[in-house]
Amino acid sequence: MTTTTSVSRRERRKVLAATTIGTAIEWYDYFLYAAVAGLVFNKVMFGPLEGGLASIIAFLTVGISFLFRPLGAFLAGHYGDRLGRRFVLMVTLFAMGGATTLIGLLPTYDTLGYFAPLLLILLRIIQGISAGGEWGSAVLLAVEHAPKEKRGMFGAGPQIGVPIGLLLSSAVLSIMNWVAPGDAFMEWGWRVPFLLSIALVAVGYFVRMGVDESPVFEEMAERKEVEAENPAKLLFKRFTPLVIVAALVFAGNGTVGYMTTGGYIQSYASNPDGPVGLARGDVLNAVTLSAFTWMLFTLFAGFISDKIGRRTTYLIGFVLQAIAAAALFPLVNTANLGLLHFALIALTVGLGLTYGQQSAMYAELFPASIRASGVSITYALGSVLGGAFAPMIAAALVEATGSTTAVSIYLVSACVIGFICAFLLKERKGIPLSTDHEDEQASNHFIFSKN
């Protein structure tokens, strides 16, 4: 029988590379849309709308995709528990890349009228379904291959794929802003990063074809446990409170993180008619740099969580994240480029420390037979509760109040909720993940649970 102890070091390295690179490619596609929504789509796809309403609707299309993440998570969890983690990863890669490439070819409102934004929303929904299925399968492939003392570090691989995706999308947009400045960027420059996705999909396919299936899934297949009761049904039948609390932990991270990954800061800080009015290229460069520091602290969180535990890392991270979230808009509103850089980099410290260990923590929460469903669905629900409409809510709060104070309160509140929910969960670092320990995996999740 295959176990994690029998997986070679070479195979583990291959899995880590494949999940990191593949996740980075998929999130490049996802974050690219979010950034362009606030910079371009609010103008070229939502022509009849005026002023702040166009931006709100553009950010609404960012959030709409999150509503379809649970569908992707249900499908990916179901087939990930029955057909394997690797199979799901290949399907989501092609779905995400295909939708992104088609967005790059989509006519604007001036050419196609109302069909342009409708088609844009349809493609964004496909991205949402794909994103809902991608993450859970990627992290399980990494964590279930890892030695138990290094799960946080291995799980941080696909986690850093997310800031790498932001780094790539921001960097390519910055380059295109230089290559095609001003009106040229609005006319055709924004399309090039979307069209590049087809080449990235080819890279992702190549690296993912070279890895083996998760050893835990292979154990399940050998024992015929993949034919058990519907995984999603069993998940909610037995673990609904756990799913909700764990989802809110991620929501505490996602609400704050989507100020940049959702494109809001890029739009707010570079709006020539707004209170800040910084150059679009300068703002994109600042976000690119912050994506790099986010990646570093995400990797550090995975590493340190193997030493001090997932829960402790979360609690420290949420405190730092709350401080940075409170200072974010006061610093951005100074219209000082140096302070914008400082605000975004400070934010990444907390974001990294509430993100890098998430793969390992989620994998250690659920029994092997329903783990793919548990991880995927919990993550998708957290995305809806947290990041889904955070940019739209921020835009609406500013439009309604005329200031960013309400946005700051909103972000700090999310950090507090995340801290409380992380506090309620017991530390489960190092718990066995194999099918031989389902009873242990299925119990003792909360600090008030009986031993």
Automatic annotation (TrEMBL):
Cellular localization per UniProt: Cell membrane
Membrane topology classification: Multi-pass membrane protein
Any Gene Ontology CC annotation: plasma membrane
Superkingdom of the organism of origin: Bacteria
Ranges of residues in domain Major facilitator superfamily (MFS) profile: 15-430
Residues that span the membrane, as ranges: 15-41, 53-75, 87-106, 118-143, 155-176, 188-207, 242-265, 285-305, 312-332, 338-356, 377-398, 404-425
Classification via InterPro entries: MFS, MFS_dom, MFS_sugar_transport-like, MFS_trans_sf, Sugar_transporter_CS
Primary location class: membrane
Pfam family, one: MFS_1
GO molecular function, one term: transmembrane transporter activity
Keyword tags: Cell membrane, Membrane, Transmembrane, Transmembrane helix, Transport
Keyword RNA-binding: no
Protein name as it appears in the record: MFS transporter
Organism from which the protein derives: Corynebacterium stationis
